[in-house]
Structure formats: C-alpha cells, structure tokens
Amino acid sequence: MFEDALIQQLAAELQQSRQTRTQVEHFSKRHPGMTVEDGYRIGRAWVDLQKACGRKVIGHKIGLTSRAMQISSQIEEPDYGTLLDDMLYVAKADEVLEIPVKSFIAPRVEVELAFVLKAPLAGPNVTVEDVLAATEYITPAIEIIDARIEQFDRHTKAMRKVYDTISDNAANAGIVIGAGDPAFKADPRATNRPWCGAILRQNGAVEETGLAAGVQGDPAIGIAWLANKLAPWGERLEAGEIVLAGSFTRPVAAQAGDRFEADYGPLGCLKFSFV
Predict the structure, then answer these.
(1) Dist CA 199 CA 214 (whole Å)
(2) Cross-strand bridge partners of residue 121
(3) What are the φ/ψ torsions at residue 25 (nearest 5 degrees)?
(4) HEC states along the chain?
(5) 47-68, pLDDT tens digit by residue?
(6) At a CB cut-off of 8 Å and minimum separation 6, what does 205 contact?
(7) How far does Cα 206 stand from its chain's mean position?
(8) In Å, how far are 78, 174, 210, 245, 248 from 110, measured between CA atoms?
(9) What is the pLDDT of residue 64?
(10) pTM of the model
(11) Residues 157-211: pLDDT tens digits?
C-alpha cells in the first residue's frame, strides 16, 4: 500500500496533467507494487484537490462494465470514478451543443444511460429494486473519457494497467445530458432498460450502435454494485446525483470540428460538436 505522501504526489501530478494537457507516465510502471486500492486512494485525493478549488461532486461513473473490457483489463468487476460540476455539458433539444476541445487531452465519446437519483442509496445490501425505487428518471448520456495518464507507455508502448485508469478518475472527463425534451426523462420501471438502444453518428456516418443490455444485462445492476462498493469507504450515492451506468459502445475518438449525434429513438437525441 502506498504511503500517504506518495498518494498526494501522484494526485498532484494528475492535477498538473489536466491543467497543462500533458500526459504523465504510467504510475504502475514507476511504482510496481501499485494496487487497485492505491488507485482509488489516488483518485479520491485528486477529487479532494478539485473540491478545494471549489468544484462540487454531482455524481459518479461506472466503467469497464462489459465482460470483454474486464477480460482485456484483467479484472473481474467494473471500476468507478467521480463526476464534478465542471464536467457537465447540457445539450438542449434541437440544438447542437458546442464543447471546447481545449478542455481535454485525447477525448473519446461513449454512449450510455444515466440514472438521476431522488433518494440516497447506501450499501452494503443495495438491490436493483432499491435502485429503481431511488431513481427519479433515466436519461441518455454521453461520457467523454480522457487520459491524463498516457494509454501506451512512451518508451515500451505497453498499455497502461487498470490501476492507472482507476487512479485517473476511471478515465472520466465529461458528461453530456439533454434538456428541453420530455423524452429525456424516462421512467426507470416502465422503460425496458436492456432494450434501450442508440445510434452514434460522427460527421454523418454511423460509427457505433448498441443496446444497454451490454452493460451487465441491465444498467441498473451497476448502480446497485456501485452503492455497495462505496459502503466500505463510508460513502453513498446521494439524492440528486447523476450516475453513469456504463458504456454500451466502444469509445470513439473526437477532435475539433467533429459533430456527433447520439440517437436514442424514443428517449431522444443528443447533438454536440467539438470546437
């Protein structure tokens, strides 16, 4: 387990990376004894730095929810990170939201569903039924992922380990949700969650399609999992928070000038571009 001083040092490196848009080398390579718990401690220390700068926690994200991604990352469960107020982008219905690319290093977009809570969820025994009872509505959501820690080592080209991704706030950098269309607020029980689908277009071309069943069979399962994973840390999901349930498409790289449409059919369409 890392000493507290090292945790703070690595969190400060992530902070500097975000500010300068310059990636840092793998923590796991520089500190071979790194563990999953060390990764979460670094991530929490980084969040504390953001809160000290005036940022507010608005929710959480769940990542690595597909079995294929877990196998490739050599883990047996998802990971998670924290959503902050300066990560939130709101796409108004029938308008194209402009997102400044300068806010990111190497942005990629993923198609997801988000659960907006009306009541807290505290583990360790939260069930899917508890999640549905605590959810005000589910809504289309785009996660913008980024990498403050380089994806491939600059010397060996080896891919970063899951400990690095976890420490890097589970790669989260932004979230896009919709406003102004009643379709954006879907009833969590009446909606057939596994069959919620989306078509992601980039500059007019279909880049990805997917169903929410790709997220552990039902995205609500991940919300229960997260509430239970937070319990040993003395944390819980709070009323009013947004929880990203996990991607059901591959990440699509974005650059300045790219325009995206995420069409969720009866749940509405999110339109945004990077400028």
Answers:
(1) 14
(2) 237
(3) -75, 165
(4) CCCHHHHHHHHHHHHHHHHHCCCECCHHHHCCCCCHHHHHHHHHHHHHHHHHCCCCEEEEEEECCCHHHHHHHCCCCCEEEEEEHHHEEEEECCCCEEECHHHCCCCEEEEEEEEEECCCECCCCCCHHHHHHHEEEEEEEEEEECCCECCECCCCCCECCHHHHHHCHHHEEEEEEEECCHHHCECCCCCCHHHCEEEEEECCEEEEEEEHHHCCCCHHHHHHHHHHHHHHHCCCECCCCEEECCCCCCCEECCCCCEEEEECHHHCEEEEEEC
(5) 999 999 999 999 999 998 877 6
(6) none
(7) 22
(8) 16, 11, 11, 11, 8
(9) 86
(10) 0.96
(11) 988 899 999 999 999 999 999 999 999 999 999 999 999 999 999 999 999 999 9
Tokens of 105: 């290093």
Residue 161 sits at the vertex; the CA angle it makes with 160 and 165, to the nearest 5 degrees, is 85
Residue with tokens 């699509």: 252
Q: Is the CA virtual torsion 251, 244, 176, 171 positive or negative?
A: negative
Question: 172 and 82 in contact (C-beta within 8 Å)?
Answer: yes
Structure tokens at 98: 């402009």
